[in-house]
Specification:
alpha/beta; 8-stranded mixed β-sheet
Length: 378
């Protein structure tokens, strides 16, 4: 008993001493305590001894870490900080937003929190007003690690009135260019291809001058579904590769893969050679320059016309983390490489998305040219 009391007293003394020492340390002007909040954050985010040993210390861009270290969450660089509400085209932006809410229509622009939404909906400097409408509902049957769209094994059945409602809304808005996309609907026999195609047909009935791009799923590799979309009178067929071959399984749902996506884009051109084909890559997921180059070479082999490259942005903490913030200069390099390789159009930049506003302006003119060629040859 005496031993126990003695140990308890010793414990009290040690705790008192620790508390006293802590107070004494806090009362002195220690160099670390004199640092500003910004300096403390810089130290906390900086490399430690282990990083130097492993050789993983990364280059900075004007003092900003661009590549992810183990356990680190990268801070947003200044070129990715934007406020779509500050767009000078706010009138059209508000009009479309109000209309979408009334009609219960979904857009990828909002679902994916696209940074270009103000300029796209407002028309941008080229005055080509664009919106990306999501058909077949807002619930996907797949669970890609980069995508924030909600998922379910058996989503609600598609709204049979959606094609007509969508077409009427687009006609009322007076859009120059519309992108139709959709969630993956593996629960439907045709993946929703007929519903997709009907929407395009209804748009063309009501607004024949509006150019339509379809950004489609892979339909589980069913090329008959691809043909259904192509035959719907659309102007641009898009399907996204998303990432390099080596990262497909890490980034996308296992039901998607590199070869399957290539086969979709290849069949578009073999089925209808004059159709404009388009795809997109996200950068910053850990891919190498050689891997990006191989994707671009594979795309040119199957005559893909247009390529967009943009920075991957982690939508929530549950999704795959950003491994690197690619600099604007590097994006410019990939744009120049795309032009040298023969893509009809390459849009490459940190804020570029698959439905990028500048792309629509270019594609609008390209689609009109190809329509003229097709009509004169028929």
């Amino acid at each position: 008993m005496a031993v126990l009391i003695r140990e308890m007293n010793l414990h009290k003394i040690s705790v008192f001493s620790l508390h006293k020492n802590a107070r004494s340390f806090a009362s002195t002007r220690h160099p670390l305590l004199a640092l500003s909040k910004e300096q403390k954050e810089k130290l906390a985010n900086g490399p430690d001894f282990g990083d130097f040993v492993e050789g993983t210390v990364t280059q900075n861009y004007d003092g900003i870490n661009l590549k992810k270290k183990k356990g680190e969450r990268l801070r947003l660089p200044p070129w990715l900080k934007t406020d779509h509400q500050s767009s000078k085209y706010n009138d059209n932006y508000r009009r479309l937003k109000t209309s979408l809410k009334k009609l219960n229509l979904h857009t990828v622009c909002e679902e994916a929190r696209c940074p270009n939404i103000g300029d796209c909906w407002g028309g941008g400097e080229n005055q080509t007003a664009t919106a990306t409408i999501m058909v077949l509902g807002d619930t996907c049957t797949r669970g890609c690690r980069f995508c924030s769209v909600k998922t379910a094994r058996n989503p609600p059945a598609p709204d049979p009135n959606e094609p007509v409602n969508t077409a009427q809304a687009i006609a009322d808005w007076g859009l120059d260019y519309v992108v139709l996309t959709s969630v993956d609907r593996d629960d439907l026999p045709d993946g929703g291809a007929a519903h997709f195609a009907q929407t395009v047909t209804e748009i063309k009935k009501r607004a024949s001058s509006t150019l339509v791009e379809c950004l489609t799923p892979d339909f589980r590799g069913d090329l008959k579904c691809v043909e259904t979309i192509v035959d719907s009178r659309l102007d641009v067929y898009a399907h996204n590769m998303e990432t390099v071959k080596e990262l497909q399984l890490l980034v996308r749902d296992p039901r998607a893969n590199y070869e399957q996506s290539l086969s979709v884009l290849k069949h578009v051109k073999s089925y209808k050679p004059m159709m404009i084909s388009k795809t997109s890559l996200m950068l910053g997921l850990g891919e190498t320059d050689d891997q990006i180059m191989r994707v671009m070479e594979d795309l040119r082999k199957i005559d893909v016309d247009c390529l967009t490259l943009g920075q991957y942005m982690q939508p929530t903490k549950r999704h795959i983390k950003v491994k690197e913030y690619v600099t604007p200069e590097k994006f410019q390099y990939w744009q120049e490489m795309g032009e040298k390789m023969g893509f009809a159009y390459t849009a490459s930049g940190p804020l570029v998305r698959s439905s990028y506003k500048a792309g629509e302006f270019f594609l609008k003119n390209l689609a009109i040219q190809r329509q003229s060629v097709t009509e004169s040859s028929s």
